[in-house]
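Milestone 3.1: sequence recovery, worked example.
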């Protein structure tokens, strides 16, 4: 299990006490989600439960809730989890993004570096206006993402003073710093760009997320510059200077970084971010993702990403236990950033953000970033979403 680090330990005594409150306290609820298989790793819960919601918060979780409710969702045969949190998206690029990914069950998102000092104010405005909680990482390059060109080929773009000022202007929504360090984005500037990202982040006590892949510098040199709580996205990127050596063995520095609190994020994306072979070799050696993310944008529906539940399903195929998969998409993601402290859980009192998914049996095709297909017999589909205690209408 990859969830043995202190800040990923779940469960609270308070919640257990509240769940056991006498029925005499029960009132009329706004919404009851009935009969689903509730998986909440934050409470160690995997059982059939009814969930009652009042005033936008989780009011009760019990085997059966008979009290009146204004609205009921029949979740029999479905999975019910805390709302999904996607920590690497580009949902902040357009105001159409947040409501689109909300349909997939994503009730919290992080835009990872779409904007740098020159344009982060636009991303921040979209985060503030989103229906669900949206936050962003400022790109260390002042331009934000330049694709396919790459934003760090000129080191002057990594301007520390400008990035700091961008955070100062947007402290309410900027929760970290992003540095894209693959060869095609940064070339030989990767280490210096990361040093500058850390200089900005540490001034505000924020994490850095790095994107890796076919890096110019050896991975151990990048890892040496990461602190506890920093995040590596695209962790299964194949090719030179990745997590595996020439014999497909994990570099010892990779697991050592994990042990000291560096977080491993999947980061599906569309090009050069993962292949099945690297996922298979690494997971067999015990490297599972702490968090899932899609690298989402408004075109993801028609790429190999599809949606976050589809990305999660890829790891069902590799044998990751379902409760660990749900943890990665909920409580683990929430614990990456203090802004999500009260999310990723169905604890009584928590904001009532809920994802209801269907785990279908059949023959489902999944794609890596090299158009390789694998077929598996289970896939998660979004079914219903509840945000702030209200059912989200289907688009
Ligand atoms: Zn990205």
């Amino acid at each position: 299990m990859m969830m043995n680090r202190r800040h990923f330990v779940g469960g609270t005594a308070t919640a257990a006490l509240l769940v056991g409150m006498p029925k005499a306290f029960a009132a009329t609820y706004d919404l009851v989600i009935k009969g689903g298989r509730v998986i909440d790793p934050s409470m160690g819960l995997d059982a059939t439960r009814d969930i009652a919601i009042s005033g936008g918060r989780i009011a009760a979780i019990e085997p059966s809730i008979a009290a009146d409710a204004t609205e009921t969702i029949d979740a029999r045969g479905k999975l019910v989890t805390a709302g999904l949190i996607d920590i690497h998206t580009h949902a902040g690029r357009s105001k159409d993004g947040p409501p689109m990914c909300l349909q997939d069950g994503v009730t919290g998102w992080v835009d990872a570096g779409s904007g740098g000092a020159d344009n982060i104010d636009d991303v921040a405005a979209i985060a503030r206006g989103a229906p669900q909680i949206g936050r962003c990482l400022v790109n260390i390059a002042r331009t934000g993402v330049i694709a396919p060109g790459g934003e760090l080929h000129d080191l002057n773009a990594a301007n520390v003073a400008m990035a700091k000022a961008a955070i100062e202007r947007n402290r309410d929504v900027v929760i970290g710093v992003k540095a894209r360090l693959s060869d095609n984005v940064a070339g030989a500037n990767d280490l210096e760009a990361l040093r500058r990202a850390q200089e900005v982040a540490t001034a505000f006590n924020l994490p850095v997320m790095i994107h890796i892949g076919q890096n110019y510098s050896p991975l151990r040199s990048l890892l040496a510059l990461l602190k506890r709580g920093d995040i590596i996205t695209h962790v299964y990127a194949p090719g030179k200077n990745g997590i595996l050596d020439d014999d497909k063995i994990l570099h010892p520095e990779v697991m050592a970084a994990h042990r000291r609190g560096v977080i491993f994020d999947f980061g599906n994306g569309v090009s050069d971010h993962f292949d099945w072979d690297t996922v298979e070799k690494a997971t067999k050696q015990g490297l599972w993702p702490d968090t899932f993310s899609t690298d989402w944008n408004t075109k993801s529906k028609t790429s190999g990403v599809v949606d976050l539940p589809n990305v999660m399903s890829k790891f069902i195929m590799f044998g990751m236990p379902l409760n660990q998969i749900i943890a990665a998409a909920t409580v683990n993601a929430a614990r990456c950033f203090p802004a999500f402290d009260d999310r990723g859980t169905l604890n009584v009192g928590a904001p009532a953000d809920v994802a209801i998914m269907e785990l279908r049996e059949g023959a489902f095709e999944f794609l890596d970033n090299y158009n390789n297909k694998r077929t598996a017999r289970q896939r998660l589909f979004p079914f219903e979403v509840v945000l702030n205690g209200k059912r989200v209408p289907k688009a």
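The radius of gyration is 20 Å. The chain is about 25% helix and 25% strand.
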